[in-house]
Every structure is written in C-alpha cells, then in structure tokens.
Amino acid sequence: MTTFFSSRDSQLAAGLRIVLPAVWLGLIIGISLIEAPLKFQAPGITIPLGLGIGRLVFTAMNWVEIAIAVALLWAVLKESVGALFRGVSLGLMGVLAIKVALIRPLLNSRTDAVLAGVDDGGSSWHFLYIAADGLLIIGLVTVIVLGLRRWVVVRPRT
C-alpha cells in the first residue's frame, strides 16, 4: 500500500499536535489576557487610539489563529488520534470560526460606532469574545495534555 506521508511526517504531526496548541494558548494569554487590558492603562492612550491598536492586533491575531488551526487540522487528520483529541480539536476550530466570522465583525462595527461618536462602547459582544477565548483556553490545555499523554511515555523507575 502506498502512503502519501512518511514516518517522519507522523513524527512531525505528533509534535505539531503539542506545539501548535501551546503556541496558540500563549498567543491568547499574551494578547487577550495581558496586552488588551493593559493597553488602555498606558499614558497617552485615548479610547480611539486604543481601539485602533486593538483592531489591528486582534485582526493579526485572528489570522495567526487561523493558520495555526489549519496546521493543527492537518496534524489531527494525518493519523489516527483518539476520539477525544479529535473532538476537542474540531471543537476548537468551531469556536475559532464563530469568534472570527461572527463575533469579530460585530465588534468591528461597534468600534466604528464608538470612533464615530455614535456609541458609548458598552457591548455584550466583548463578553462573548472573552467567553470564546475562555473556551479556547480550556480546549487548548486539554489537547496539550492529551497530546503529551499520547506522545510522551513515562516509564516507572525500577
């Protein structure tokens, strides 16, 4: 039987199933949990400036998340992984799709309204975005642990 991927590809896929979720998790922690809240505390940052920076940063972050998700999808489909790993990974991609395709455009509209002076900026969409990131964090930690348990074999000392 001819196989499209070599065993080296399998090693690469196994490594990516751990590294990609870890990088994605670090991205969310760094941007959503650290940069975004601190940005508005910096001296001289106005609401319009902070919103403009936020839009650029989160748009770039979402594109990086999409690239990571596509590579992770390849690593998940590459070879047999457990049903839980596959399910959580696909769930991550679903949450990302909702975050990028539904919530992000609504937040961009709100940002436009705030910048135009038509809106005060209060929005429940931010809470949905935060909730989506919370789900991603839980899912990413789960797939990292599952990937490590499958890939790293710890033998008891004798």
UniProtKB/TrEMBL annotation:
What UniProt keywords apply to this chain's record, in alphabetical order? Membrane, Transmembrane, Transmembrane helix
**Top-level taxonomic group:** Bacteria
What parts of the sequence cross the membrane?
Answer: 12-33, 53-77, 84-107, 127-148
Instruction: Kindly provide the name given to this protein in its UniProt entry.
Output: Uncharacterized protein
Query: Which organism's genome codes for this protein?
Result: Brevibacterium celere
